[in-house]
Amino acid sequence: MNLNSLTIDAARSAVQDRKVTATTLAEEFYTEIQKDDPRIGAYLILSKDRALEQAGRMDQLVSRGEKLPPLGGVPIGIKDVLTTRGVRTTAGSKILGNYIPPCDCTAVSRLEAAGAVFLGKTNCDEFAMGSSNENSAWHPVRNPRDPSRVPGGSSGGSAAAVAADMAVVALGSDTGGSIRQPASFCGVVGLMPTYGRVSRYGLVAFASSLDHIGPITKTVKDAAIVLRTIAGHDSMDSTSADLPVPDYVAELEKPVQGLKIGVAKEYLGEGLDREVRYAVEAAIQKLESLGCKIVEISLPHTKYAIPTYYIVATAEASSNLARFDGVRYGYRARDARTLSEMYRRTRDEGFGAEVKRRIMLGTYALSAGYYDAYYLKAQKVRTLIARDFEEAFSKVDAIVTPTCPTAAFKLGEKAENPLAMYLADIYTVTADLAGIPGISIPCGQTRENLPIGLQILGRHFDEATVLRVAHAYEQAVAPSA
Amino acid sequence: MKVTAKDVSYVADLANLELSDEERQRMVRDLNSILDYVDLLNELDTSSVQAMAQVSDRYGVDRSDQRSDRFAYAIREDIKEGLRKSLPHDVALQNAPESDGTFFKVPKVIDR
Fold first, then answer.
1. Do B68 and A459 touch (CB under 8 A)?
2. Rounded to a whole number, what is the distance in Å from the CA of B110 to chain A's nearest CA?
3. What residues are paired with B15 via a beta bridge?
4. What is the ipTM of this complex?
């Protein structure tokens, strides 16, 4: 079977119509992984037993003449920050190198209940902290489009796996852009839902007021199918919203004529690569030609988003990562004489450089004497950033921006300069801070054939409009259209 | 310079990190470079702005009458019976670096 551009519906129908068994399809993906992944590095752990067991269940349904569930037989990858019962979950960190979770993340169990075949755990930056996937404690990921370049991060393994046909779809997590930025760098679709739309039960926590789970896919429709499956209230996550889940797939076909699309000058200014700007401007024109009304808007506090984010996120991380102490699970330093020495050496040996840097920054920002100047200040500026969006969404239905200021950069290019790396998230962190949904979809490529991403942002819980605009654009630029 | 080597020692202590001499030097450099950038926030007068700790702080209120931004959180009911069982003892201990089968074992807590 040709795995290239295989979508959820195509894979499911092929299994349903007995063109291929779910078992054979899974095996074909494992063959592809065996062939290509030594070059890419997208996967950390394969869960073949579990995948073949699930594929066997789907094949039985078909042989009994039953209808497959919405993701029946569809091979998926899961970012390694999501817990999977009985399958090692490391969060890209040595400190969780041998951790075997006793339970499944809700998003994973919902996908499996819908028939998905879970191939394995995808590589990521350690504890999802990074924009290049170079912070994985195990190995970096290479961009399938150009192996000298990064796939983005932190969900770099998920984006690379989908881009290189090593999974039909994958789950990622987004705290400052970690779904949308790698999707943009790898030329695939990445959706961050509204804060609270998808349960985070089973997500290894980084920054709890900013963490989101969402899909990375080849098409907007696939993102809608996955979101429909994983969204909705979960009593295991008290931040999960108890709101009805719309049929995102049916909503895709609604017309976009007359929708008001905001374009903010703050996202098209200094620091934006020229080729990215042209591609995004062309995409805006395309949306206009589809009948959308383009409205100039202003999000005046955009330039404060990176400093705000790096204080809020690191403060929360320093607290969340306090649990890794070598007592109950994970790595423990050997031969420590006292408990306190054991804590320190375990954390020193278990965490990588970027994670330590963020724990230190966050601890500093929360420490006596600095709390007001840094943490409280950042929380107040966060309010201003959220208000910018409230104001904008009183005038427009969606906002389009570039996903990233540049296309994928080279491995090692920003590795020595944390601040330069942080600035790669400049257009994505704002949505995390405000809690609004956003998607990145491909909108052309540079002269060096590197993908460029278009970001579409929407109102809280209005993923339907975000997906609808993305789908309309995708259909309008599709080669067959 | 905002952050000195002494500050790094103090904060590492709070965070239960040891850090090598080399790591400490690099930390002084990196934290100063990041915090210099964070100073940008001081351009803004935030004296009358409320802090936002959670998205739900702003959207937890039912504003369905105002058309937008409704963020209704689930309020969990008290469950008197049929509570979800916690992890069985052996499962809770299965990832422990060291255990005696009943408890997690750790090195001496107080060094005399």
1. yes
2. 7
3. none
4. 0.92
Residues, chain A, total?
481
Question: How many residue pairs bridge chain A and chain B with CB atoms within 8 Å of each other?
Answer: 191
pTM (two decimals): 0.95
Instruction: Give the tens place of pLDDT for each residue, A181-198.
Output: 999 999 999 999 999 999
Inter-chain touch B52–A386, beta carbons under 8 Å:
yes
Predicted confidence at residue B74, as pLDDT, reads 44
Please, which residues have CB within 8 angstroms of residue A104's CB and are 6 or more apart in sequence?
Answer: A83, A84, A85, A112, A202
Q: Are A104 and A188 in contact (CB under 8 A)?
A: no
Domains of chain A (ranges, CATH numbers): 8-251 (3.90.1300.10)
* Among the partner residues B41, B53, B56, nearest to A307 by beta-carbon distance: B41
The residues, ordered by sequence, that sit 6+ positions from A214 with a Cβ below 8 Å of its Cβ are A171, A172, A173, A174, A179, A190, A191, A192, A193, A198, A223, A227
Looking at residue A265, its amino acid is K
Residues in chain A with CB shorter than 8 Å from the CB of B31 are 357, 360-361, 364
**pLDDT, tens only, A25-38:** 999 999 999 999 99
- What's the half-sphere exposure (Cβ side, CA atoms, 13 Å) at A42? 33
Of all residues in chain B, the percent with pLDDT exceeding 70 is: 73
Chain B residues whose beta carbon lies within 8 Å of the beta carbon of residue A301: 44
Contacts of B39 in chain A (CB under 8 A): 307
